[in-house]
Amino acid sequence: MGRSSPGLQAAGHPASLGTSAWAWRRTHPRGGATFPGPAPALCQARSRSRSNSRLDNMAHDRPSCTLEPEHVQRLLLSSREAKKSAYCPYSHFPVGAALLTGNGLIFSGCNVENACYSLGICAERTAIHKAISEGHKDFRAIAISSDLQDDFISPCGACRQVMREFGTDWAVYMTKADGSYVVRTVQELLPASFGPEDLQKMAEQVPQPGRAWVPTRV
Ligand SMILES: [Zn+2]
């Protein structure tokens, strides 16, 4: 890891950090059994659920931006705590997220639904918007928790795009209910993405009037 690892500080729910009854569990790399223990840097989960089999197969590569194990554990616990506040009377699908900033703060969030369905917001974006509104936009990692037992919770496309707005080289920890997880970079979750740099390219582009547009495969 190229970056220093500042101590984590809670932003929002300090009392919840480290006091969760949720016991950390990880999937044994060889046998598939679960056992209590410290959070691994990268859990090599072996569950072969259909929808997440690609994630499982990719679980061996550790992105350079992943956190130290103790920080991973704390971030995941924060996301688990945040899930308790989820307002999801329509989907009954509670999700929690915990976002780690570059200076070691954790902002948590949950999904918040609405009777006008389209106004609902995901836990990931709640956490990101909270951080932004407090003046933080340098992110190192986000952890996501749900009650899914056989699948790693995965951010929706909208949340991936919002994550990407603030860089592509930071970590997304996706968990199962037992605490096992896979970690990917934002770049891996949203390849060939569109971001602020692309808008800047347009502004810097030299106008070429009269040039015909011809479809060309590159
Ligand atoms: Zn989402």
UniProtKB/TrEMBL annotation:
Binding-site positions, Zn(2+): 122, 156, 159
Named cofactor requirement(s): Zn(2+)
E.C. number: 3.5.4.5
Binding site for substrate: 111-117
A Pfam family recorded for this sequence: dCMP_cyt_deam_1
Single Gene Ontology BP annotation: nucleobase-containing small molecule metabolic process
SUPFAM superfamilies assigned to the protein according to its UniProt record, in alphabetical order: Cytidine deaminase-like
Keywords: Hydrolase, Metal-binding, Zinc
Enzyme class of the recorded protein, top EC level: hydrolase
Catalyzed reaction equations: cytidine + H2O + H(+) = uridine + NH4(+)
Top-level taxon of the source organism: Eukaryota
Residues in CMP/dCMP-type deaminase domain copies: 70-197
InterPro entries per record: APOBEC/CMP_deaminase_Zn-bd, CMP_dCMP_dom, Cyt/Deoxycyt_deaminase, Cyt_deam_tetra, Cytidine_deaminase-like
GO cellular component: cytosol
Span list, region Disordered: 28-63
Keyword check for Protease: no
UniProt GO molecular function: cytidine deaminase activity; identical protein binding; zinc ion binding
Gene3D superfamilies: Cytidine Deaminase, domain 2
Active-site residue list: 124
Physiological role: This enzyme scavenges exogenous and endogenous cytidine and 2'-deoxycytidine for UMP synthesis.
Family: Belongs to the cytidine and deoxycytidylate deaminase family.
The protein, known as: cytidine deaminase
Originating species: Octodon degus (Degu)
